[in-house]
Amino acid sequence: NVSVVDLAADGADSQDGIGLRIKSGAKSGGTVDSVSYANICMRNVKFPLVFDTNYGSAGGTSYPDFSGITVKGFHYLGSQRFGGGKTTFVGYNDNGQKRPISITLDNVVFDGAQPSFTGLTATHFSLGPGPVSFANKLVPSIKDDVKVSGSPGNGTPVDCTVAFVPMKSVVPEAPF
């Protein structure tokens, strides 16, 4: 069981900026279960959400299995450089093994531009009861083993007004 709560992440518009990420592959896989993220504020990140079971080189028999993942209260404020950023939801479907990601998205809100997908396969989504701003992009697919259940509703995004403080307010001699 892993729980991440009250996180503020500023990627500074870095080309390599990654927000929430769980990655694995058949060489180093296994079970990842009961991981929750709550009250997350994020901005200026190229890859805000990355859940990838096909990371790295192929081979191996430690097949990754991601289940019980919950993102509740995630607010992405956007990026001047990357807009809504790119997300990845890639469950394992290789070597005759099918291990879709099981993930719940509840009150997951991207301001302005919505994310694009670098991968969307073998993932079973449970949405709501709060809003999921990109829910219309999560299209069920038998071919790609994408399932979507639940109905996102209305709600207020996580309040990020005090999540990002200027460094100078904490360290007066800071150059930024």
Automatic annotation (TrEMBL):
SUPFAM superfamilies named among the record's database cross-references: Pectin lyase-like
The keyword Hydrolase is annotated on this UniProt entry: yes
Biological process terms in GO annotation: carbohydrate metabolic process
Pfam hit, one: Glyco_hydro_28
Alphabetically ordered keywords of this record: Glycosidase, Hydrolase
Molecular function per GO: polygalacturonase activity
Highest taxon listed in the record's lineage: Bacteria
InterPro entries tied to this protein: Glyco_hydro_28, Pectin_lyas_fold, Pectin_lyase_fold/virulence
Family to which this protein belongs: Belongs to the glycosyl hydrolase 28 family.
Name listed for the protein in its UniProt record: Polygalacturonase
Lineage: Bacteria, Pseudomonadati, Pseudomonadota, Gammaproteobacteria, Pseudomonadales
